[in-house]
Amino acid sequence: MTPDRSHCEGCFRTIDEIRAWSRADDAERRAIWARLLVRAGVPLPEELSAP
């Protein structure tokens, strides 16, 4: 976890996102990926930035 405990330093997911991952459907997983890429400072691929 980051020093402020906001997310994992390795995968960039929050605790809530880690907990939700195994039961998340494809749409929710794409949303989690989009948020973690933003946290990591990585530009979003087109398929994740489209609604």
UniProtKB/TrEMBL annotation:
Name of one Pfam family that matches: DUF1289
Listed name of the protein: DUF1289 domain-containing protein
Source species of the chain: Oryzisolibacter propanilivorax
Lineage start: Bacteria, Pseudomonadati, Pseudomonadota, Betaproteobacteria, Burkholderiales
